[in-house]
Amino acid sequence: MKTKDGNPELSYDDRNIIIHCALPFFEKEDETRYRYFLEGYNKTWSNLTKNPQAEFTNLDSGYYIFHAQAVNVYDIESTESTFRFRVLPPWYKTWYAYLFYSIIGFFAIAFLIKLRYRYLEKEKKRLEKEKQNLEIIVEERTKEIKERSREISEKNIQLEDQTKKLQEQSDKLKELDQIKSRFFANISHEFRTPLTLIISPIEQMLQSINDRKQKKSLNTVLQNSQRLLTLINQLLDLSKIDSGKMKIRASLNNIVSFLKGLLGSFEGLADQCGIKLEFITQEEEILIYFDPYRMEEIVFNLLINALKFTPSGGNVSLIVSRNRGNRWTMDSSSIISENEDIDLKYIRISVSDTGPGIAPHQMNHIFDRFSNTDEMGEKIQKGSGIGLALSRELIHLHHGKIIVHSRLGEGTEFEILLPTGNSHLKPDEIDSENIRPFKPEKHTELDMLYSCEKSQDDLSNENTTQNDDIASTDEGKESDESDRIVILLVEDNADVRQYIKEPLEGMYKIIEAENGLEGIQLAKEHIPDLIISDIMMPGTDGYELCKTLKNDIETSHIPIILLTAKASEDSLMEGLKIGADDYITKPFNSRILLSKIKNLIEIRRQLQEKIQIQKTLLPPEIEVKSLDRKFMEEVHDIILANLSDPEFDIEMLTRKLLMGRSSVFRKIKAITGETPNDYIRTFRLHRAEQLFRQSSGNVTEVAMEVGFSSSSYFSTCFTKLFGITPKDFIHEIASGNTEIILEKQKKK
C-alpha distances in angstroms, 307 versus 265, 266, 278, 490, 540? Predict the structure, then answer.
């Protein structure tokens, strides 16, 4: 059927079509290629194909233009040919079908309108009945409300009585809190006297002692005594604030030069830590009322925290700027009323770092006293838990505000807002004559950080030398390296590392790591014989270190001792579940640590002896931990597969295990007590013994089968291991005297 324009029409049932194409070029007709494009169906041309027909299925109704083009064997393209056609719509899409649909729709709408009218009539009657019922209910409820009003009046009287009782209880609690604060202040004062008697003699001893080790130990005692004194002073300040006895003496000073001078005290420490210090301001002079001594305490606490938690290569920034905000909410101590519709100028001081950040669930507790031990757990233990709480209270005394912004992995910013002018200050809070010239105080904690960082640098240099020695001798002097037990010590506190290291240095080679991540890297690099790790470390803690190393085939065999300040059963069970071999609770005696180290090394030695005895057994019968057992099974399979190859040695073994030579050497040495080459040789000899028992050949044949190219060398090794020559062994087996041979093996 054709349309008026001469193009063919296809019925909707014939919408699956095949169009054949031909090219009037008959040379190598089979090599002619075609491509097609059906406008309205395809989006692009088809790829060239030798198939001269195009198939189209399920075409929708409408007009189509078929385009075709051919390329002959000489890659000459033909002109494009077109073919137009139309697919007719199905009967249910014709105009008379739509007319029928319209008629049906009209009658359906009319029917629905009629039903709706009847429904509304019924609803009207129902609502009239409900109205009558509601009027009755309202009357009844009105009576009930009046009765309840009388009951509420009676309960209000009872609540007033209860409020009076609660007020009395609150007054008693406040009194108890004041008694507790006074007691705490008094006991803190009592601590200062013995601390003074500790610090002074130590300082005198340091001047007269020349012994390096004793001097280092006394320095550690002095630093921690001074830190304890600082904490007590902070506690006393908090006690004064709680009792309302602490007052600020604010005077008009240039906050920019003040902060710049404080930041300069930290430059040496920042350089030692590899941290970049930045001071940012747009003005050289910003005058504001503040107490220099209290402001020094605030800024020092924030800067010390920022440096503690910022890794090497990070940034710590101190920013001061003048801002103008729309009436920000002051603390209750502010004289700004909630009803005052004014703008308040304030100074913004920001201390930011690029440290690990604070988790969202910890943000609400960041200013709580001792929050780091109660809320932040073991990963953030470097602070005392007092500094931030004291800083916030001192800022409140200045009628200011402190805000913290933080994101995990990006860093933390503490923002201080201080109002300008002096209208917010009480008369007794203003030092109008400025009779106390400010001189920066010497901060004990800052001095302690200096000394700690210096000792860490010294230890780092020692570690570098130790690690270089280990790396240089590991490949060339395997026997010498195996004689020296290597212990990896992972502890973020330099003083504690030194305390643990001193009694161990004479007996063991010590490698040190300052955090869990570095500990994991050094453990994989050097494969130590034993690891001692603290649990409470920032970032990667001891639990994560233990779990990572125990689940790694290269390090799973290494015994791990965890150090913790928590002695609860839950803490012990958590460590033991992830594979820790032993636990030591702080504080501990170094002799206990030495005893535990010796016990673990002895247990490993006994396991090595057991493996030597069981070497002839199948790998599943050797009792070692699961990952180590899997490793030894793989080693046995590789040795068995290459047993007859005399060139097979540790180099080929490491390639097949896909591990480093040093890792394979230390792991096999740790599990079996033998170097890999010795283990391969004894494995060959035990296999030779089995073959002799099975009468599988003479000495030369068996030697070749187990990978010895020289029968004389085989005889020497066999005699050294079993205490009998191979010929005598074969003779004894032939004679049935196996009991004598077994006895010789036991003696050997």
Answer: 12, 9, 12, 21, 18
- Return phi, psi of residue 210, to 5°: -110, -15
What single string gives the DSSP state of each residue in 193-230?
HHHHHHHHHHHHHHHH---HHHHHHHHHHHHHHHHHHH
Q: Which among 288, 279, 282, 299 is positioned nearest to 254, based on CA atoms?
A: 288
Contact 368, 392 (CB under 8 A): no
Long-range contacts of 381-385 (CB under 8 A, 24+ apart): 381/536, 381/537, 381/538, 382/308, 382/309, 382/492, 382/538, 383/305, 383/308, 384/231, 384/234
User: Tell me, what amino acid is at 454?
Assistant: K
DSSP state of 88: P
User: Quick check: 365 and 371 in contact, CB under 8 A?
Assistant: yes
**Tokens representing residue 399 in the block:** 């009628």
pTM for the complete prediction?
0.45
User: How many Å apart are CA 296 and CA 443, to the nearest integer?
Assistant: 10
User: What per-residue confidence (pLDDT) applies to 269?
Assistant: 81
pLDDT at 694: 76
SS3 assignment, position 524? helix
- Name the strands in the sheet holding 62-71, side by side, starting at the edge strand that comes first in the sequence: 9-10, 81-87, 62-71, 33-39
| Nearest C-alpha neighbor of 524 from the set 657, 675, 663, 671 | 663
In 340-490, which residue ranges form alpha helices assigned H by DSSP?
A: 371-374, 387-397, 444-476, 478-483
Given the DSSP bridges, would you call strands 530-534 and 560-564 parallel, antiparallel or unpaired? parallel
Distance of CA 76 to the CA centre of its chain: 65
Whether residue 68 contacts residue 39, with contact meaning beta carbons closer than 8 Å, is answered with: no
Low-confidence ranges of the chain (pLDDT < 50): 325-343, 372-384, 435-440, 442, 444, 451-482, 616-624, 742-744, 746-748
Peptide bond into 587 cis (omega under 30): yes
* C-beta separation of 71 from 78 below 8 A: yes
> In the structure encoding, which two tokens stand for residue 246, read together?
């602490």
- Taking residue 728's Cβ as centre, other Cβ atoms within 10 Å add up to 14
Contact assessment for residue 15 and residue 87, using Cβ atoms and an 8 Å cutoff? yes
CB 216 within 8 A of CB 498: yes
Residues 6+ apart with CB under 8 A from 60: 15, 87
The pLDDT score that the predictor gives to residue 95 is 82
CA angle 599, 601, 605 (to 5 degrees): 115
75-121 pLDDT per residue, tens: 888 888 888 888 888 888 888 888 998 999 999 999 999 999 989 98
